[in-house]
Amino acid sequence: MLGREDETPNQRQRSEHPVQKIEKEVLETIIESAKAAHPNEFAGALRAEGDTITAVLLVPGTVQGARHAVIRMNRLPVDRSVVGVVHSHPSKSARPSKEDLQLFGKHGHTHIIIHHPYTETTWRTWNHRGEPVHLDVV
Predict the structure, then answer these.
(1) Are 127 and 37 in contact (CB under 8 A)?
(2) What is the value of pTM for the model shown?
(3) Which domains does the chain have, with CATH numbers?
(4) Phi/psi at 97 (nearest 5 deg)?
């Protein structure tokens, strides 16, 4: 495994993941957007500069429903700064569903799920394989 010998596996995974941070303002936007969409799901694309998520993009044609959100990534212009997707779960779980995992595998390497009641402690980050990733809020 790559990394220093004194690193734990979690530290290695974190240091190997291209995105390490999320701006506080972006997290606040995600929280407020999820609350506004409730009881439906909210969805958007994540933009990063370097190792930091800097924006949530609203994708034209996104459909928000009580059990799903359909995000039409093909409606975004070609943009290499888009690193993944964010969406909300109106339930009390941020675990990715089977459909979420399929989406993760197709669109980027960093994905956020926030669950009800949509606070600074109810969001989780996942990589393209559905494995947890830690992001620092900056």
Answers:
(1) no
(2) 0.80
(3) 20-137 (3.40.140.10)
(4) -80, 175
